[in-house]
Write a structure and sequence with these properties.
16% strand; elongated
Length: 144
């Protein structure tokens, strides 16, 4: 009879240890950078990219957003109530939380923006060094 209780106790202890390890893995801050390219001005794609960046940040990833091509329109403060208004609001919140948002100055100028005067507060001029961030070990890049 003692052997039966010992087995049950060992199984229960194993379940507790496995559960604790699993829970620890779920709550542990994950290493690495989540690099989000936003190259489109399509509201669905832009919102998906910004929302994915927000979820990654919530899960402990360092997040970097790069607005280029038509995606630079998201950085424009000239059109705050356009189709990108919801995504822009989320982007501004991410900036307040410490997310770095790079904006391509050339594509901004092509889109008719005065650089950097027409950009929302907190964005950073994209320079050649951003490729070092994108290509760093433990960086995952996605494009929208």
């Amino acid at each position: 009879m003692t052997m039966r209780y010992t087995r049950w106790l060992a199984l229960a202890l194993l379940a507790v240890v496995v559960g604790a390890l699993w829970l620890g893995a779920q709550t542990q801050k994950r290493p690495g950078t989540f690099y989000v390219y936003i190259i489109s001005d399509d509201p669905r794609r832009v919102e998906t990219g910004v929302n994915m960046a927000a979820r990654a940040r919530e899960r402990g990833y360092e997040v970097v957003i790069h607005l280029t091509a038509r995606g630079v329109k998201l950085a424009s403060k000239k059109t705050p109530q356009d189709e990108l208004a919801n995504a822009r609001k989320t982007l501004q919140q991410l900036i307040k939380e410490g997310v770095t948002v790079y904006v391509c100055p050339r594509n901004s100028a092509r889109a008719g923006m005065k650089v950097p005067d027409d950009w929302i507060e907190g964005v950073v001029r994209g320079e050649p060094h951003v490729i070092d961030i994108q290509m760093a070990p433990n960086t995952e890049a996605v494009s929208f």
